[in-house]
Amino acid sequence: MTITTAPPRSETGRSHLQESLFSWLTPQDQALAPEQKAIPAPGAKKKLKDLSHTWVVAAEIPVAPKIAKVADDRGSFRATEGQRVNALEVYCQGCRRPYDEVAGTDCSEKIDNRHLIGGDQSTRAKRKIPTPPRNARLLPGGTINRTGISAYVSGVSRPVR
């Protein structure tokens, strides 16, 4: 004879597995219907997006040869305390514009970053194909195998030494 036991039930009538699904809800949220949760209060203010610049400084720091080697290998190094740093340029990390040009304005990268990718891609001019000289003739070339072992052996997929 086999005896089975049911999972413990809470006072709401749900099993312990169902309770774990709804554990992230607060008791106040559990009482509301799903369609009531999505509707914001009429007087609630929306949180505005932060459009401020993120300023960074391009710096010039004199270092010893040993630190220069570490910085070249790792891409970073530790500066000593009290070391003077010469600022070459101060610019916004997002829109890459100098401080004196855009100080006091909103960051254009946070508004629309199309200027960083060469403008609007749908209205950009197509690439111009160069016209050959008047007396030039186009000759058909041979086919190049770019796949398989023969392409690897012939140097298509690897640099020539």
Describe this structure in words.
The protein is an alpha+beta fold and 161 residues long. It has seven helices and two strands; from the N terminus they run H-H-H-E-H-E-H-H-H. The chain has helices spanning 16-21, 27-31, 34-37, 65-74, 99-102, 108-111, 148-154, and strands at 55-60, 86-92. It has a two-stranded antiparallel ribbon with strand order 1-2. The radius of gyration is 32 Å and the shape is extended. The N and C termini lie far apart (78 Å). The model has no long low-confidence stretch (mean pLDDT 75).
Question: Nutshell version of this structure?
Answer:
With 161 residues, the protein is of the alpha+beta class. It has seven helices and two strands, in the order H-H-H-E-H-E-H-H-H.
Write the layout of secondary structure elements.
Elements: H1 16-21, H2 27-31, H3 34-37, E1 55-60, H4 65-74, E2 86-92, H5 99-102, H6 108-111, H7 148-154
Antiparallel strand pairs: 1-2
